[in-house]
Amino acid sequence: MAQEGTPEKRSGSSASEVSQIIFGEKHLEYQLNQFVSSGGQTVNILLSGKTGVGKSYLTNALLGESLAVEGYDIDPQTDNVTAFEVVKNGVSITVFDTPGLADATGNDEEYLRKINEKVAHFDLFLFCTEMTSRRFRTDDLETIKKLTEALGEKLWEHALVVLTFANEVSLLPAKKKDNVSEVTFFNDRFLAFKKAIKKHLVAIGVPEITVTNVPFTPAGELDDPRLPDREDWLTAFWIAAFKRINRNAKAAFLMANVDRISLSSTFGEGNEESRVRKDGNVVNLGQSSNVSMEESNAMKEFRAKLKKSDFDKRLSGFLEKTETFDEPEEECLTSTGQDAKVSGPSINVDETYSEELIKEMLGDVPGQFVDELAGDKFDRKYQTFFGRLTKYFKKSYPTS
Known about the structure:
Helix content is 43%, strand content 12%. With 400 residues, it is an alpha/beta fold. A hairpin with a 2-residue loop joins strand 2 and strand 3.
């Protein structure tokens, strides 16, 4: 989010100076107000890809709701555009499922007309293709071309390309003989798809700057979230979608999924969730619960500085709340391992993702604020700050 008048970072600032940095004009109060009030209470997602590429499974994972029965296939003999609707935390979400044009019966013009009629506006475009293919399919190329012609090049300004069935990508026998690692083979396949799709987009007239910014992400199974290049594909996919979605829908998208966000315990009560993969290895979804005394002291100092600068009082006053807030818990939004009502699979946000989310919500100024207050000894400062902000966000968002 663009901002003006970003202050230079200073070391050793007093509480009053820090308060001015974070609460001054165009800073936290301004940015948080802009974020909360930037959008309405609806999110529209346009979904495209051939029948059988796992679109329903992917969408259910993204939203934490069963919009369609997994394995659902649109009849390839029709040219329907199917709208799935769900309300989550007061946010109305509509997913428009548009199968690949090559799945139809040659009546592409009629099909494209129906897309234009039914999809008046969308906030996020998900284009799905299976990563198990050795090369990008020509029918997918044709779908991209015709959708771009029908909806315009702006289609790709909020697009995210998802490579499904990434968990089924396996080494070819010839590669095994050449001692190519699984990670290298996976990355090569991923980059090949990325290169082919971007080359095609440029060829059909999409501006290079738009093509450069189109993100790609692999998707696999929920029961075993690990892929060769990452431990948790779902969280990476959700973060990519949040960063890519229309700015006016970011707050609504976050609100709809906020109960699914899980941060690891700050003080480490040994309540982390572990998941046993099919190969017998254990994947730790939270961060390590072993917090050093140095980091624990840094955490206490961080909280003391926030309290001294009247952070909670000023923030709750800014949000015009009449009720009295208890001091926000530092542990998490949904502490991993604790009993809590969670809709859909958890989004496991670590320190790096927390920093990305804060900057996506509020810009760079809060990052300077967090860095200055916490220092280098506190390793989970962004998680702590993100949990704190989100606590207020949930209370202040209109649907609350």
